[in-house]
Automatic annotation (TrEMBL):
It comes from the Bacteria. Residues 245-342 form the PAS domain. Keywords: Membrane, Transmembrane, Transmembrane helix. The chain crosses the membrane at residues 6-28, 153-173. This is PAS domain-containing protein. It comes from Rubrivirga marina. Gene3D superfamilies: PAS domain. InterPro entries: PAS (IPR000014), PAS-like_dom_sf (IPR035965).
Length: 511
């Protein structure tokens, strides 16, 4: 496993640097060996030139240069006179390659390696009697000494292989180490028992940038921990202040928790309930028969309410309760939450309300009978006296049409559903009808005197003189009701007539 940890990055960088250094060093080493070989050749040529020059001085011109040429020694000997002309050469081709006489004059010394058009040559010069010069020339070797290249390559490969082995070992070591560090970091963060930021900073010493990848996870875990803490506090508060009796248990019958109201009403100790079995509640609140409903609630993901049940309190009295339950899953375990609402007070109130309702119904029936009897008597008296009574609401709808009105107009209530229809059947002239309507809807408290042409049963039209008074209802909730009360006045009684100028002449009757 290759992980971009600081250790692995350092190993990779070191491997690259050392590889480059090894290659450059090997090249420089081989170049140095080749340069040393050329220098050694030039030195041997210088020795040879000096030896041959001494021998020539001793032996004289009888001895030629060919005497000193040997196959073991590479190169050629070239003899020049004082004018720089070639006198003799052991290898005419090499002697003709360059003007070695003047080349030697241009050198700072008598032994050197020079580059010519034909290649690199090592040369050495020695003076001869009479101003001449002996030059020994040999081409520099174009290959390394035997085995030197192989030794150099083997050494470089061995060094590189050693570094690769170190890199592989470090990679193998840092791979499992990194995996273990990542697993440990993830496990510690999942446990939530330490600050995620602190864990990341601590792990970054070994993991480097890999540890920073856990920062969003740490932030999310922090938010989830805060949310879980708030939810726990919220649920705990609901348990504490809930006045209903709450029991939380698993679907296999283990009691997880109950709220204070449940302990208070049953008198059971916490140790006997929390962590126990539902059989411990058999004498007080037997919820075993309700477990099937809990499974159904979990399957349907909905609450079940309105179950009439009972609970035995600490005084061994039976209290009627209404049970609601909800199945859900908590930490992978199916749970059931029971809530029992005490119905004892409600039942008592219902009994009292029912008893009071019965008494009230009796009283109302008696009172209605009394009022109805009185109203029927009054109604008969008014109808017999020919008093006309008609009531209308704020919209003009007819709500009452007395017997006197029926006797006067010959029309029942169904024929006069509205005030406009009532004015039509009262037999008023168009002018009086307009004045009557304006008076009815005004705020005037004065009576209105009208003359009505009423068709009798024999078909003849008779004019009747009626004085009207409007009364506004003062009953609660009926402030919009207006009632007309009309009394017929005999024709021989002089009443103010209705004027043709459009104004209704009224008479205060003291009513």
């Amino acid at each position: 496993m290759l992980s971009p940890t600081p250790a692995v990055r350092a190993a990779i960088s070191g491997l690259v640097v050392v590889t480059v250094i090894a290659v450059v060093g090997a090249a420089l080493h081989l170049q140095g060996i080749q340069s040393q070989a050329a220098d050694a050749l030039a030195a041997s040529l210088g020795t040879k030139a000096g030896t041959v020059a001494t021998a020539l001085q001793t032996s004289g011109p009888r001895v030629g240069l060919a005497t000193f040429a040997t196959p073991e020694q590479p190169g050629a000997l070239v003899m020049y006179d004082r004018a720089g002309r070639v006198v003799e050469a052991t290898d005419a081709e090499v002697g003709a390659l360059a003007d070695w006489f003047r080349t030697v004059d241009a050198l700072p010394g008598t032994v050197a390696v020079v580059d010519t058009e034909a290649g690199a040559y090592a040369l050495a010069a020695s003076s001869l009697p009479g101003g001449g010069r002996l030059v020994a020339v040999a081409p520099t070797p174009d290959h390394l000494p035997d085995g030197e290249l192989l030794r150099t390559v083997v050494a470089a490969v061995a060094l590189w292989g050693l570094l690769v082995g170190v890199f592989i070992v470090m990679t193998w070591y840092t791979g499992p180490r990194t995996a273990n560090q990542l697993a440990l970091l993830g496990e510690r963060m999942a446990q939530g028992d330490a600050d995620g930021d602190a864990l990341i900073r601590h792990s970054a010493v070994w993991l480097g940038a890999l540890a920073e990848a856990f920062q969003p996870v740490a932030d999310r875990f922090r938010q989830l921990r805060l949310h879980a803490r708030d939810v726990d506090q919220h649920v705990a508060a609901l348990y504490q202040i809930n006045p209903h009796y709450v029991v939380l248990c698993t679907q296999d019958g283990e009691i997880v928790e109950a709220n204070p109201a449940f302990y208070a009403v049953t008198g059971l100790p916490i140790a006997a309930v929390r962590g126990g079995r539902i059989e411990a509640l058999q004498e007080t609140f037997p919820i075993g028969p309700l477990m099937e409903l809990g499974k159904r609630s979990l399957k349907e993901a909905s609450a079940i309410t309105g179950i009439e049940y009972a609970i035995i309190d600490r005084d061994d009295e039976t209290r009627p309760v209404e049970v609601s339950l909800r199945g859900f899953t908590l930490d992978g375990r199916p749970m059931v939450l029971f809530q029992a609402t005490d119905q004892s007070r409600q039942k008592t109130l219902e009994r009292r309300v029912n008893a009071f309702s019965d008494t009230l119904d009796l009283m109302v029936d008696q009172r209605v009978h009394q009022l109805t009897a009185g109203q029927q008597t009054l109604k008969r008296v008014l109808d017999a006296a020919g008093v006309i009574v008609a009531s209308f609401d704020a919209g003009g709808a007819t709500s009452r049409w007395s017997g006197g009105a029926v006797a006067l107009t010959g029309q029942p209530l169904s024929a006069v559903p509205h005030f406009a229809a009532a004015t039509q059947v009262l037999g008023l002239s168009p002018t009086e009808r307009t004045a009557f309507t304006q008076w009815f809807w005004s705020l005037s408290q004065e009576p209105f005197v009208g003359r009505h042409g009423v068709i009798g049963r024999d078909g003849a039209t008779r004019t009747r003189q009626i004085i009207w008074q409007r009364v506004d209802a003062d009953m609660a909730g009926r402030s919009d009701l207006r009632t007309l009360i009309g009394v017929e006045v005999p024709a021989y009684v002089e009443m103010p007539a209705y004027g043709g100028d459009g104004d209704a002449r009224s008479l205060r009757l003291g009513v």
